[in-house]
Amino acid sequence: xxxxxxxxxxxxxxxxxxxxxxxxxxxxxxxxxxxxxxxxxxxxxxxxxxxxxxxxxxxxxxxxxxxxxxxxxxxxxxxxxxxxxxxxxxxxxxxxxxx
Length: 99
Hints:
By secondary structure, this protein is mainly alpha-helical. It has helices at about 5-20, 50-65, 70-95.
């Protein structure tokens, strides 16, 4: 028996002890909950999906060419977030909705 087998048997014993307590076994995952602040739509951005996608591509290029963690990198990431929120807002208003 290797040391990994011993560890596994100890883990199995612990999990069987926990399972005997009247708690439901959930696989270790939890239900996602809302967090943070709701997104605000930047109305100063264009209101067409195509124009927003062009801005998004340009912001991605700026992010990818900037030094990781630098000011330009962080600013490009923030801009990408604003653009993506605006794209989602425009798509929700489409008939039929996209996305």
